[in-house]
Write a structure and sequence with these properties.
The chain is an alpha+beta fold and 214 residues long. It has helices at 12-26, 53-61, 64-80, 97-109, 112-124, 133-142, 147-154, 160-172, 195-213; strands at residues 2-7, 34-39, 51-52, 92-93, 180-183, 187-190. A hairpin with a 3-residue loop joins strand 5 and strand 6 (187-190).
Length: 214
């Protein structure tokens, strides 16, 4: 069963959704799953060099103190899924286009899950700037990719248009928030759904597929 996950590398709910999806998949060991992560930019107008986080928070929330209340809920929910977000370490709000290019290459290399996990960890636990090519190369290398090849690709415009086109497709489908789960090309669920909700959707999709086969 194919599950497409439309997400952004700086979306905390996408990381939470990943953990919940993993629990759902583990609860259905008899089903062969293929999870594919698709690109989406929450802030497509972010400059290539990103934003200073303090300046960004000032513009969006009126300051970091106001943002703390919002992020407190996110951190508490993440903790329930075994994730310790260290948001205070973040210095920049990055442009995520290059991270999505890396995800595309990782899918081709068969290590997309490891790269997705590495990106989320780098940003939410380590406070790394995942718009920085050096950080992306490090994530790629740790996932088993060829660091030299990835560095050369990042220095070029390779697959930039491809990723942007795929994002346009998502927006034309009506996707306005992430994560967005597309289960077996049949069911669409938006948001970091609870594990039991994901399981219901998986079971329903499996039942529909079985009926169609009959």
């Amino acid at each position: 069963m194919q599950i497409d996950v439309i997400s952004d590398s700086i979306c905390p709910w996408c990381y939470i959704g990943k953990r919940r999806l993993e629990k759902a998949l583990a609860a259905r060991p008899d089903i062969a799953f293929a999870v594919i992560w698709r690109p989406y930019q929450l802030n497509p107008d972010t400059p290539r060099e990103g934003y200073d986080r303090k300046a960004y928070m000032q513009a969006k929330f009126g300051g970091t103190d106001q943002a703390k209340g919002v992020y407190k809920v996110v951190q508490a929910t993440a903790r329930e899924e075994g994730l310790e977000f260290a948001l205070e370490k973040q210095k920049r709000i990055p442009n995520t286009l290059d991270s999505h290019r890396l995800n595309h290459w990782a899918h081709t290399a068969g290590v997309q899950d490891a790269v997705i996990e590495g990106l989320f960890k780098a940003y939410f636990m380590d406070g790394a700037d995942i718009g920085d090519p050096a950080v992306l190369v490090k994530v790629a290398k740790e996932a088993g990719m060829d660091a030299g090849v990835v560095a050369k690709l990042l220095a070029s415009d390779a697959d930039r248009d491809l990723v942007l086109r795929e994002e346009v497709v998502a927006r034309r489908m009506g996707v306005t928030g992430v994560p967005c789960f597309i289960i077996d090309q049949r069911l669409v669920m938006v948001g970091a759904q609870e594990t039991d909700m994901l399981l219901r959707a998986i079971d329903h999709a499996a039942e529909q597929a079985s009926q169609a086969a009959e």
